[in-house]
Fold these 3 entries.
Entry 1:
Amino acid sequence: MDQRCVFYRKPLLESGTLGTKGNTQVIIPDLTESYGSSQDPPEKETPSCTIKNFPNAINHTIEVRRLLAMMCVQF
């Protein structure tokens, strides 16, 4: 999508969420950097939607187990 917006010189509004945090980025060709050239900082935590819907790495499995253990301790 980013490459097409740059090619056709159309603005792009990128947005996302991580838990209760949100972010937006406005991309305007020839005025701001494109989405593909920017780098997000490393995430300090795994997004809950990844853990619930698509746990695809070992750290996701560990996080699921940790959350389940916390739930068992609370009861």
Entry 2:
Amino acid sequence: MESAGGVTPALQPRGPGRPSTVAPYEPEVARWLREDPDLPGVELLRRVRLAGYRGGKSALYELVRRLRVRRPVNGAGSS
């Protein structure tokens, strides 16, 4: 889209969208994952819902994906 002067306006970066509904639960989820790194996502969802979370499971699962510590596969890196 061009302006009346024939110059295309520069796109402005968008600000942040809605605040995350899962963000307030991040410290608790991180603690649970430190205590038990193999805790299933569905169990984490159950726990945050008991704590009052009313958001969707996709937002929580994305948070869990970011927080999970990448662990080496058994035998990887050893000779």
Entry 3:
Amino acid sequence: MYSPRIDEKLIPVIYRRAKSIKKPMTKVVNEILTAELCEDFYCRNCNNKISADQGSKEGYCDKCNSSVFLLTTSQ
């Protein structure tokens, strides 16, 4: 299977984010890509699936009990 390389300048950024939320770097990258590429929305804090109206810029995570800004491929 093809394994694309991550740009070297992004590694420190991913590392710091992963360390700050105490998750492995691979999980952080997967969460970012899933949120950006998939039609469904996921909470960036807990990766819980979020229901939101089409075109919404904000959703609500029932698991975290918090508002979450949504990212789509068009933003």
